Amino acid sequence: MTASPDKRITVQYAGDDVPRVTRTRIAIWNAGRRPLNSSDIADDYPIRFRFGGEQVRVLDVATLRTSDEANKFRAIRDDGNSAVLISIDYLEHRQGGVIEVTHTSDGWGATASGKIKGVPRGIREARLPKPPSSPVQAFLAVIVIIPLFIVVVALFELPLLFIWDVLENLLLQIVLTGIIALIAAALVVAVVQRYREPRALSLSDK
Questions:
Q1: Which CATH number does the domain housing residue 65 bear?
Q2: How far apart are CA 128 and CA 124, in angstroms?
Q3: Do both 146 and 105 map to the same domain?
Q4: Among 39, 95, 129, 190, which one is most buried in terms of CB atoms within 10 A?
Q5: Are 97 and 23 in contact (CB under 8 A)?
Q6: Domain containing residue 41
Q7: Per-residue pLDDT, 151
Q8: What percent of the chain stands above pLDDT 90?
Q9: What percentage of the chain reaches a pLDDT higher than 70?
Q10: Is residue 47 in a domain?
Q11: pLDDT score for 176
């Protein structure tokens, strides 16, 4: 909800006037294979989320879910209530938490920052396209669509005498393409499954 410039519509949070109220949910988890300990996080570059806009205020932070209480997963307001700071004791593979941030930014997205030993790229957001639900579906798509396209092109561009020769060669290409597509699809599914949010921390579970 956003207040109007002419003050005909005002927005308040906990009794204070604010320009708008935006809610953002963030899932954080360890996508690496080894445990992440608090000592692995650089003291001067902790895990932090910032929201865009001028004079943005973080109004409230709530931890909705955690993988394990022993992780000591915590989220608090930081830097004069303009950011959210994450602290942990440790996170095993695919352990983490889900937080809900109420803030005054005009965008729901947040910029993640932080430095972790052994992870040169630091904290990063997982932005992956929706994968096929199974390697079989990707295989079927490639084995049907691509060969049909090649056949149509061949029929229009090559003389009739060479059609059967073309089709014979295409049969071998189809088989090889299908095998490669199946292997590639299996690799894509494996990679996406590794970096996809754990089911226990899914943002779709509202």
A1: 2.60.40
A2: 12
A3: no
A4: 95
A5: no
A6: 11-113
A7: 58
A8: 34
A9: 62
A10: yes
A11: 65
CB-CB contact of 52 with 111 (8 Å): yes
Q: Residue 98 falls within a domain, yes or no?
A: yes
Report the domain count for the chain. 2
Q: Where are the alpha helices (DSSP H) in the chain?
A: 135-157, 163-195
> Amino acid identity, residue 190?
A
Q: What is the pLDDT of residues 138-160, one digit of tens each?
A: 555 555 555 565 555 555 555 54
Of the residues 83, 113, 143, the one at which a domain ends: 113
Exposure pattern of 137-162 as b/e (b: 16+ CB <10 Å)? ebbbebbeeebeebeeebeeeeeeee
Tokens 């300990």, located at residue = 37
Tokens of 10: 């005002």
What the block records as the tokens of 41 is 């996080």
E strand spans, the chain: 11-13, 16-18, 22-29, 36-37, 47-51, 58-66, 74-78, 83-87, 90-91, 96-103, 110-113
| Structure token digits, residue 124 | 């990063």
> 2-14 pLDDT, tens per residue?
666 666 678 888 8
Distances (CA, A) of 11 to 20, 22, 203: 6, 11, 27
User: How far apart (Å, rounded) are the C-alpha atoms in residues 48 and 35?
Assistant: 19
CA 37 to chain centre: 22
Taking the model in full, what pTM does it have?
Answer: 0.66
Residue 187, judged by CB atoms within 10 A of its CB (0-12, 13-18, 19+), counts as exposed
CA–centroid distance for 197 within its chain: 7
- Same domain (yes/no): 109, 15: yes
Query: Tell me, what's the pLDDT at 147?
Result: 59
